[in-house]
Amino acid sequence: MGNQVIDMMFRSFIFFIPAYLGNMMPVILGRLPRYKKIMVPVDGGKMLAGERIFGDHKTWGGLLAGILGGFFAGLLLLLFLNWRIQGDVFGGEQIHFIFQATLLGLGAILGDMLKSFFKRRLKIAPGKPFVPFDQIDLVVGSWVLVSIFYPQPIIFLVCGLIITPLLHLGANIVAFQLKWKNVWY
Fold first, then answer.
1. CA Rg, the chain, in Å?
2. 30 dihedral zone (left: phi>0; alpha: psi -120 to 50; beta)
3. Which of 15, 18, 25, 159 has CB 3.0 to 4.6 Å from 69, enough for a Cys bridge?
4. pLDDT digits (tens, 9 = 90+) for 74-118
5. What are phi and psi of 48, to 5 degrees?
């Protein structure tokens, strides 16, 4: 029983790697001078009920970065872990694998945008914590989007909801220790 749980957690972690990379890519690419030209807000500055629809930080460049992050994570997983996951975690042929990984990256960004939509409605400022949604938006968004095209086991979602907040906290602690962040959470 214990080995089955560990195996499922591992498979779920591998499954969400494209979503994790897709979620990180807007921050990484947003620092590149040439990339800043497409960091234009998705909502075009429009308001809904006196609040921005998504805010300045949800950009077309970020959306593209999420897609690219998922795609490249899929390629890397296919190249380096093909022996472990081909037909197992994602299933199917390589083109389906890459498409699913790309959808995971896009879904991560769409989940984040949906969370931002609700943050604006609740008058929570951009960048302010919205626990636990800051930690799980990418999991839910990516799992739902992929499941529309390739139905996924609910256990992947459950495991992702457990793993991702732990990874998020761990990454934040490391970033705080390296003085990349001002707070540990």
1. 17
2. alpha
3. 25
4. 999 988 876 454 455 555 577 888 999 999 999 999 999 999 999
5. -140, 120
